[in-house]
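Pair request: fold both.
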Amino acid sequence: MPLSDHEQRMLDQIESALYAEDPKFASSVRGGNLRAPSARRRLQGVALFVLGLAMLVCGVAINATWIGGLPILSVIGFIVMFGGVVFAITGSRASGPVDKSAPSSGSVRAKRGKSPGGSFTSRMEDRFRRRFDE
């Protein structure tokens, strides 16, 4: 369900205030720019999975690959299978310019200035109370 215009404005204000008060935390919480995996990446992941599965089966079937009672080729095959699945389901990081929609701390402070209302949370609580008192 999409947000209403008022809710979107409030969310933008909260985000701006978060960037203004603690830009380092805000940028770490914002997360990475992960994309959905491409068809080529998925195909490569499936190929790795099949290769790992073949290694796993061959490692159990061929006794020459056992070292100390442990089928080493099978263990490596399982790791390759796991890596193939991870490779297939994760997308690569988006390359290109950094997202310009996120405000920098300097521009937010310049726009907002020093308001006498106190901290961000107290201002939001005041707005909330005023809205329900009306």
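--- second member of the pair ---
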Amino acid sequence: MRDLMIEPDGDVVQDELSHDLVEVSGTDELMQSCGEVLGIEQGEMDELAPDCGLPLDNILGKAYDDNYAAQDISDTLMNQEPRVDAVDGVDITHDLAKRTSEIFANIHSSDIQNSGNQYDDQGNLKLTVGDSSGI
């Protein structure tokens, strides 16, 4: 698949010389797609796709639990991105001073061929979602 490349702040990327919009494909497009799904609160797009996005019940609030949040992240990726075959090793790190969290997940996809540095030594895709995810 191919899509327009999106910057962390949500803007599309424009080539500096030609001023054309930059496209993304393969592993990079899958990573961008997964990040976008996790950046949408479930129910936010009620009219278009009511089940799209990450449920925040176990992510926000006083009863936060890393295990429940990791399970919701894994379920969201598995159910909403058809190219994801499996998700394991979900880690969430928190920066309380900045009030942000980062999500690290190993994603298995048989549709995407190895394209380099986003794979670990076992061939798993490494997804990182940072400040721009809204989580």
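Observation on the second member. The first strand starts at residue 2 and ends at 4.
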